[in-house]
Amino acid sequence: MNSLLKHVQTLATAASSFALTVTLASTLAGRPLAAEAQPPTPAPERVYFNETGHTVEDPFVAYFVTNGGIERFGYPITDQFVDSTTNLTVQYFQKARLEYHPANPPAYQVQLGLLGDELGKRQPPLAVRDIPSATDPNCAYFDATGHAVCFQFRRYFETTGGIDLYGYPISAQTIEGNRIVQYFQRARLEWHPERPEGQRVQTAALGTIYFDWARLDPSRLRPTVTNAQARAVTALRMNASVDDPFAPSGGTQRVYIQVTDQLGQPAANIAVQMIVHAPDGDQAYTLPTTDARGATTLLFLAGRYPAGTTVNLELIASGGGLTATTRASYLIWYY
User: Fold this and answer.
1) Is 18 helix (H, G, I), strand (E, B) or coil?
2) Is the model's pTM score more than 0.85?
3) Which CATH architecture has domain 236-333?
4) pLDDT tens, 98-121?
5) Burial of 282 (C-beta count, 10 Å sphere; 0-12/13-18/19+)
6) Hey, what long-range contacts does 211-217 have (CB within 8 A, 24 or more apart)?
7) 4, 86, 107, 124: which has the fewest C-beta neighbours closer than 10 Å?
8) Residue 319: how many CB atoms within 10 A of its CB?
Protein backbone atom coordinates (compact mmCIF):
# COMPACT_ATOMS: atom_id res chain seq x y z
CA MET A 1 0.00 0.00 0.00
CA ASN A 2 2.92 2.38 0.82
CA SER A 3 4.43 1.83 -2.63
CA LEU A 4 1.01 2.55 -4.19
CA LEU A 5 0.74 5.87 -2.36
CA LYS A 6 4.31 6.78 -3.28
CA HIS A 7 3.46 6.05 -6.91
CA VAL A 8 0.42 8.28 -6.73
CA GLN A 9 2.46 11.13 -5.21
CA THR A 10 4.97 10.83 -8.06
CA LEU A 11 2.14 11.06 -10.59
CA ALA A 12 0.79 14.13 -8.85
CA THR A 13 4.07 15.91 -9.31
CA ALA A 14 4.38 15.13 -13.00
CA ALA A 15 0.75 15.11 -14.23
CA SER A 16 -1.97 17.68 -14.58
CA SER A 17 -4.71 17.96 -11.97
CA PHE A 18 -7.11 16.21 -14.35
CA ALA A 19 -4.76 13.24 -14.74
CA LEU A 20 -4.32 13.07 -10.98
CA THR A 21 -8.07 13.04 -10.45
CA VAL A 22 -8.49 10.19 -12.89
CA THR A 23 -5.62 8.19 -11.35
CA LEU A 24 -6.91 8.63 -7.81
CA ALA A 25 -10.46 7.77 -8.76
CA SER A 26 -9.56 4.66 -10.73
CA THR A 27 -6.63 3.39 -8.62
CA LEU A 28 -7.74 4.16 -5.07
CA ALA A 29 -11.54 4.20 -5.36
CA GLY A 30 -11.91 1.49 -7.99
CA ARG A 31 -14.86 3.24 -9.62
CA PRO A 32 -15.45 5.79 -12.42
CA LEU A 33 -15.20 9.49 -11.86
CA ALA A 34 -18.34 11.23 -10.66
CA ALA A 35 -20.02 13.29 -13.34
CA GLU A 36 -19.04 16.93 -13.40
CA ALA A 37 -21.55 19.04 -11.49
CA GLN A 38 -24.16 20.48 -13.82
CA PRO A 39 -25.91 23.81 -13.38
CA PRO A 40 -29.48 23.52 -12.11
CA THR A 41 -32.13 23.04 -14.75
CA PRO A 42 -33.93 26.36 -15.29
CA ALA A 43 -37.62 26.44 -14.45
CA PRO A 44 -39.99 26.32 -17.43
CA GLU A 45 -41.68 29.53 -18.49
CA ARG A 46 -45.10 28.08 -17.78
CA VAL A 47 -46.73 24.77 -16.85
CA TYR A 48 -50.30 23.92 -17.84
CA PHE A 49 -52.19 21.33 -15.75
CA ASN A 50 -54.85 19.33 -17.56
CA GLU A 51 -56.11 18.12 -14.18
CA THR A 52 -57.56 21.55 -13.34
CA GLY A 53 -57.19 23.51 -16.57
CA HIS A 54 -54.92 26.21 -15.11
CA THR A 55 -51.41 27.47 -15.83
CA VAL A 56 -48.55 28.36 -13.51
CA GLU A 57 -46.26 30.98 -15.04
CA ASP A 58 -44.01 33.92 -14.16
CA PRO A 59 -43.70 35.20 -11.45
CA PHE A 60 -44.77 32.01 -9.67
CA VAL A 61 -43.56 29.11 -11.78
CA ALA A 62 -39.92 29.08 -10.56
CA TYR A 63 -40.99 29.17 -6.90
CA PHE A 64 -43.59 26.46 -7.52
CA VAL A 65 -41.17 24.13 -9.29
CA THR A 66 -38.27 24.53 -6.85
CA ASN A 67 -40.25 24.31 -3.60
CA GLY A 68 -42.12 21.06 -3.93
CA GLY A 69 -44.53 21.55 -6.83
CA ILE A 70 -47.70 19.51 -6.74
CA GLU A 71 -46.71 17.57 -3.62
CA ARG A 72 -46.37 20.73 -1.53
CA PHE A 73 -48.89 23.09 -3.16
CA GLY A 74 -51.31 20.80 -5.01
CA TYR A 75 -52.63 21.69 -8.45
CA PRO A 76 -53.45 25.30 -9.34
CA ILE A 77 -57.17 25.95 -8.93
CA THR A 78 -57.07 29.43 -10.52
CA ASP A 79 -54.84 31.31 -12.90
CA GLN A 80 -52.99 34.27 -11.43
CA PHE A 81 -55.00 37.46 -10.92
CA VAL A 82 -54.81 40.77 -9.09
CA ASP A 83 -56.50 40.67 -5.69
CA SER A 84 -58.72 43.76 -5.49
CA THR A 85 -58.26 43.96 -1.71
CA THR A 86 -54.46 43.83 -1.53
CA ASN A 87 -53.59 44.83 -5.13
CA LEU A 88 -51.17 41.89 -5.16
CA THR A 89 -50.90 39.38 -7.98
CA VAL A 90 -51.96 36.06 -6.44
CA GLN A 91 -52.70 32.50 -7.50
CA TYR A 92 -54.60 29.86 -5.58
CA PHE A 93 -53.50 26.24 -5.38
CA GLN A 94 -55.23 23.34 -3.68
CA LYS A 95 -53.00 23.73 -0.62
CA ALA A 96 -51.76 27.32 -0.73
CA ARG A 97 -51.92 30.84 -2.12
CA LEU A 98 -48.88 32.34 -3.81
CA GLU A 99 -48.44 36.12 -3.65
CA TYR A 100 -46.15 38.43 -5.62
CA HIS A 101 -44.58 41.29 -3.64
CA PRO A 102 -42.56 43.23 -6.27
CA ALA A 103 -41.26 45.82 -3.76
CA ASN A 104 -39.38 43.13 -1.81
CA PRO A 105 -35.82 41.96 -2.56
CA PRO A 106 -35.86 39.31 -5.33
CA ALA A 107 -35.51 36.36 -2.93
CA TYR A 108 -38.66 37.45 -1.06
CA GLN A 109 -40.90 38.65 -3.87
CA VAL A 110 -42.91 35.41 -4.06
CA GLN A 111 -44.44 34.50 -0.72
CA LEU A 112 -47.07 32.13 0.62
CA GLY A 113 -50.30 33.61 1.93
CA LEU A 114 -51.02 33.31 5.65
CA LEU A 115 -54.18 31.28 5.10
CA GLY A 116 -54.16 29.69 8.55
CA ASP A 117 -54.25 33.12 10.17
CA GLU A 118 -56.79 34.48 7.70
CA LEU A 119 -59.11 31.56 8.45
CA GLY A 120 -59.01 32.62 12.12
CA LYS A 121 -57.29 29.45 13.36
CA ARG A 122 -54.74 31.16 15.63
CA GLN A 123 -55.14 30.07 19.26
CA PRO A 124 -53.84 31.77 22.44
CA PRO A 125 -50.25 30.84 23.34
CA LEU A 126 -49.63 27.75 25.43
CA ALA A 127 -49.85 28.16 29.18
CA VAL A 128 -46.43 28.26 30.83
CA ARG A 129 -46.97 24.83 32.36
CA ASP A 130 -47.61 23.35 28.90
CA ILE A 131 -44.52 24.73 27.17
CA PRO A 132 -42.19 21.82 26.36
CA SER A 133 -38.66 21.89 27.66
CA ALA A 134 -35.96 23.16 25.35
CA THR A 135 -34.32 19.73 25.72
CA ASP A 136 -37.48 17.79 24.80
CA PRO A 137 -36.46 15.69 21.76
CA ASN A 138 -40.07 15.34 20.63
CA CYS A 139 -41.13 18.98 20.44
CA ALA A 140 -39.95 22.31 19.10
CA TYR A 141 -41.40 25.43 20.74
CA PHE A 142 -41.64 28.80 18.99
CA ASP A 143 -41.71 31.99 21.04
CA ALA A 144 -42.99 33.91 18.01
CA THR A 145 -46.45 32.36 18.33
CA GLY A 146 -46.30 30.55 21.66
CA HIS A 147 -46.96 27.12 20.18
CA ALA A 148 -45.02 23.92 19.66
CA VAL A 149 -44.91 21.28 16.95
CA CYS A 150 -44.36 17.75 18.24
CA PHE A 151 -43.77 14.11 17.34
CA GLN A 152 -44.58 13.11 13.73
CA PHE A 153 -45.80 16.60 12.89
CA ARG A 154 -42.41 17.98 14.00
CA ARG A 155 -40.53 15.46 11.87
CA TYR A 156 -42.61 16.30 8.79
CA PHE A 157 -42.39 20.04 9.45
CA GLU A 158 -38.61 20.05 9.80
CA THR A 159 -37.86 17.75 6.86
CA THR A 160 -40.20 19.22 4.24
CA GLY A 161 -39.73 22.97 4.45
CA GLY A 162 -40.08 24.25 8.01
CA ILE A 163 -40.94 27.87 8.72
CA ASP A 164 -40.27 29.02 5.15
CA LEU A 165 -43.07 26.88 3.71
CA TYR A 166 -45.44 26.41 6.63
CA GLY A 167 -44.86 29.41 8.85
CA TYR A 168 -44.97 29.16 12.64
CA PRO A 169 -47.49 26.89 14.40
CA ILE A 170 -50.51 28.93 15.47
CA SER A 171 -52.50 26.22 17.26
CA ALA A 172 -51.99 23.14 19.35
CA GLN A 173 -52.88 19.75 17.93
CA THR A 174 -56.66 19.48 17.91
CA ILE A 175 -59.45 17.28 16.56
CA GLU A 176 -61.39 18.28 13.45
CA GLY A 177 -63.70 15.81 11.77
CA ASN A 178 -62.36 12.90 13.84
CA ARG A 179 -58.83 13.70 12.67
CA ILE A 180 -55.83 15.17 14.49
CA VAL A 181 -54.80 18.45 12.85
CA GLN A 182 -52.55 21.39 13.61
CA TYR A 183 -52.65 24.83 12.03
CA PHE A 184 -49.65 26.83 10.90
CA GLN A 185 -49.57 30.32 9.46
CA ARG A 186 -49.51 28.92 5.92
CA ALA A 187 -50.75 25.33 6.22
CA ARG A 188 -52.69 22.69 8.12
CA LEU A 189 -51.07 19.35 8.90
CA GLU A 190 -53.30 16.28 9.28
CA TRP A 191 -52.65 12.86 10.80
CA HIS A 192 -53.88 9.93 8.65
CA PRO A 193 -53.21 6.71 10.61
CA GLU A 194 -54.87 4.61 7.90
CA ARG A 195 -52.10 5.44 5.43
CA PRO A 196 -48.80 3.55 5.06
CA GLU A 197 -45.80 4.51 7.15
CA GLY A 198 -44.22 7.66 5.77
CA GLN A 199 -47.51 9.00 4.37
CA ARG A 200 -49.46 9.53 7.56
CA VAL A 201 -48.79 13.26 7.85
CA GLN A 202 -50.54 15.12 5.04
CA THR A 203 -51.04 18.80 4.20
CA ALA A 204 -54.67 19.84 3.89
CA ALA A 205 -56.22 21.54 0.85
CA LEU A 206 -56.09 24.87 2.64
CA GLY A 207 -56.13 26.90 -0.57
CA THR A 208 -59.42 25.34 -1.63
CA ILE A 209 -60.82 25.62 1.89
CA TYR A 210 -59.96 29.32 2.07
CA PHE A 211 -61.24 30.07 -1.45
CA ASP A 212 -64.64 28.60 -0.53
CA TRP A 213 -64.70 30.15 2.95
CA ALA A 214 -63.88 33.62 1.62
CA ARG A 215 -66.54 33.24 -1.10
CA LEU A 216 -64.16 34.32 -3.82
CA ASP A 217 -65.31 34.55 -7.43
CA PRO A 218 -66.15 30.95 -8.46
CA SER A 219 -65.65 31.78 -12.14
CA ARG A 220 -61.90 31.85 -11.46
CA LEU A 221 -62.07 28.10 -10.85
CA ARG A 222 -63.21 27.38 -14.39
CA PRO A 223 -60.61 25.83 -16.70
CA THR A 224 -58.86 28.19 -19.03
CA VAL A 225 -57.96 26.84 -22.44
CA THR A 226 -55.39 28.74 -24.48
CA ASN A 227 -54.65 26.34 -27.34
CA ALA A 228 -55.40 22.86 -28.64
CA GLN A 229 -52.12 21.43 -27.40
CA ALA A 230 -52.86 22.53 -23.86
CA ARG A 231 -56.17 20.76 -24.07
CA ALA A 232 -54.71 17.27 -24.25
CA VAL A 233 -57.29 14.78 -23.00
CA THR A 234 -55.89 12.70 -20.15
CA ALA A 235 -59.06 11.03 -18.86
CA LEU A 236 -62.62 10.21 -19.93
CA ARG A 237 -65.73 10.35 -17.78
CA MET A 238 -69.13 9.00 -18.76
CA ASN A 239 -72.71 9.29 -17.56
CA ALA A 240 -75.60 7.16 -18.76
CA SER A 241 -79.36 7.28 -18.31
CA VAL A 242 -82.38 5.55 -19.84
CA ASP A 243 -85.51 7.09 -21.29
CA ASP A 244 -87.87 5.07 -19.12
CA PRO A 245 -86.82 3.43 -15.82
CA PHE A 246 -89.97 1.24 -16.16
CA ALA A 247 -90.12 -0.26 -19.65
CA PRO A 248 -93.00 -2.44 -20.92
CA SER A 249 -92.21 -6.05 -21.81
CA GLY A 250 -91.67 -6.30 -25.55
CA GLY A 251 -91.36 -2.54 -25.90
CA THR A 252 -88.39 -0.31 -26.68
CA GLN A 253 -85.89 1.54 -24.54
CA ARG A 254 -83.49 4.41 -25.25
CA VAL A 255 -80.14 5.00 -23.59
CA TYR A 256 -78.45 8.41 -23.41
CA ILE A 257 -74.69 8.79 -23.01
CA GLN A 258 -72.61 11.86 -22.12
CA VAL A 259 -68.78 11.64 -22.31
CA THR A 260 -66.49 14.39 -21.00
CA ASP A 261 -62.77 14.82 -20.47
CA GLN A 262 -60.91 15.37 -17.19
CA LEU A 263 -62.08 18.99 -17.12
CA GLY A 264 -65.73 18.19 -17.68
CA GLN A 265 -65.58 19.40 -21.29
CA PRO A 266 -67.44 17.43 -24.02
CA ALA A 267 -65.39 14.65 -25.61
CA ALA A 268 -66.28 14.20 -29.29
CA ASN A 269 -65.62 11.21 -31.58
CA ILE A 270 -65.56 8.72 -28.71
CA ALA A 271 -66.63 5.14 -29.42
CA VAL A 272 -69.26 3.70 -27.07
CA GLN A 273 -70.19 0.06 -26.59
CA MET A 274 -73.16 -1.22 -24.60
CA ILE A 275 -73.68 -4.69 -23.15
CA VAL A 276 -77.22 -5.55 -22.08
CA HIS A 277 -77.15 -8.07 -19.24
CA ALA A 278 -80.57 -9.77 -19.47
CA PRO A 279 -82.02 -13.06 -18.11
CA ASP A 280 -81.62 -14.85 -21.44
CA GLY A 281 -78.01 -13.76 -21.97
CA ASP A 282 -75.87 -10.77 -22.87
CA GLN A 283 -76.29 -8.73 -26.02
CA ALA A 284 -73.75 -6.19 -27.33
CA TYR A 285 -74.55 -2.95 -29.16
CA THR A 286 -72.35 -0.31 -30.80
CA LEU A 287 -73.58 3.24 -30.40
CA PRO A 288 -72.80 6.11 -32.79
CA THR A 289 -69.62 7.97 -31.82
CA THR A 290 -70.17 10.98 -29.59
CA ASP A 291 -70.99 14.29 -31.24
CA ALA A 292 -69.58 17.76 -30.51
CA ARG A 293 -71.56 17.82 -27.27
CA GLY A 294 -69.98 14.53 -26.18
CA ALA A 295 -73.39 12.90 -26.52
CA THR A 296 -74.76 9.79 -28.19
CA THR A 297 -77.94 7.74 -27.91
CA LEU A 298 -79.43 4.43 -29.04
CA LEU A 299 -82.95 3.01 -29.33
CA PHE A 300 -83.10 -0.76 -28.70
CA LEU A 301 -85.55 -3.50 -27.73
CA ALA A 302 -86.25 -3.53 -24.01
CA GLY A 303 -86.77 -7.32 -24.02
CA ARG A 304 -89.74 -9.58 -23.48
CA TYR A 305 -89.40 -10.48 -19.82
CA PRO A 306 -91.77 -10.90 -16.85
CA ALA A 307 -92.76 -7.79 -14.93
CA GLY A 308 -90.31 -7.13 -12.14
CA THR A 309 -87.24 -8.17 -14.16
CA THR A 310 -84.23 -5.87 -13.85
CA VAL A 311 -82.16 -5.36 -16.98
CA ASN A 312 -78.63 -4.06 -16.39
CA LEU A 313 -76.64 -2.07 -18.93
CA GLU A 314 -72.86 -1.85 -19.02
CA LEU A 315 -71.38 1.05 -21.04
CA ILE A 316 -67.76 1.39 -22.22
CA ALA A 317 -66.37 4.56 -23.84
CA SER A 318 -63.00 4.48 -25.57
CA GLY A 319 -60.87 6.89 -27.55
CA GLY A 320 -57.28 8.09 -27.75
CA GLY A 321 -56.08 5.13 -25.71
CA LEU A 322 -58.41 6.07 -22.84
CA THR A 323 -61.48 4.26 -21.51
CA ALA A 324 -64.34 4.96 -19.14
CA THR A 325 -67.14 2.72 -17.91
CA THR A 326 -70.48 3.23 -16.25
CA ARG A 327 -73.73 1.36 -15.65
CA ALA A 328 -77.47 1.91 -15.92
CA SER A 329 -80.55 -0.24 -15.49
CA TYR A 330 -84.30 -0.36 -15.95
CA LEU A 331 -87.19 -2.45 -14.72
CA ILE A 332 -89.65 -4.37 -16.88
CA TRP A 333 -93.11 -3.43 -15.66
CA TYR A 334 -96.79 -3.44 -16.54
CA TYR A 335 -98.12 -0.73 -18.79
Assistant:
1) helix
2) no
3) Sandwich (2.60)
4) 999 999 999 999 999 999 999 999
5) exposed
6) 211/77, 211/78, 211/92, 213/119, 214/118, 216/92
7) 107
8) 18
